[in-house]
Fold this sequence. Notes:
By secondary structure, the protein is of the alpha/beta class. The protein has one domain (30-119): Immunoglobulin-like, CATH 2.60.40.420. The protein has one helix and nine strands. The strands form three sheets. It has a four-stranded mixed β-sheet with strand order 2-1-4-7, with no helix packed on it. A three-stranded mixed β-sheet has the order 3-9-8, with no helix packed on it. A two-stranded antiparallel ribbon has the order 5-6. A hairpin with a 2-residue loop joins strand 1 and strand 2. The model has no long low-confidence stretch (mean pLDDT 89). Bound molecules: copper (II) ion (CU).
Amino acid sequence: MTLWPRIAGIFLIVLIIGTGYSKVCAEQQEQVIKMTAKRFEYSPKEITLKKSVPVILEITALDRLHGFYCPDLKLRTDLLQGKVTRVSVVPDKIGVFAFHCDIVCGDGHETMVGTITVKE
Ligand SMILES: [Cu+2]
């Protein structure tokens, strides 16, 4: 009697479980959107998200301290110069929501704006 069929069987089971596990991990990993902020713009300045799907905004302020404020989605953070700031978002409503810099950063600060569009 040989062991090979058993070993092959165990190998197959481990493979199937492993594949399923890595799929679950991939699904749970939140989408990351990289952004930059500088006088007087965000890039990208228009972001589209899906309702109830969690994402992380990774925002780097390139030239100085800025702010990121999206009142409708209750998001607010300082963006420190040269640092990556992570903002977790789980949009709970559909619509187009404006965000802007809320730290006065110079002439043109008022134009430092963008939108988050949340779709079904
Ligand atoms: Cu500003």
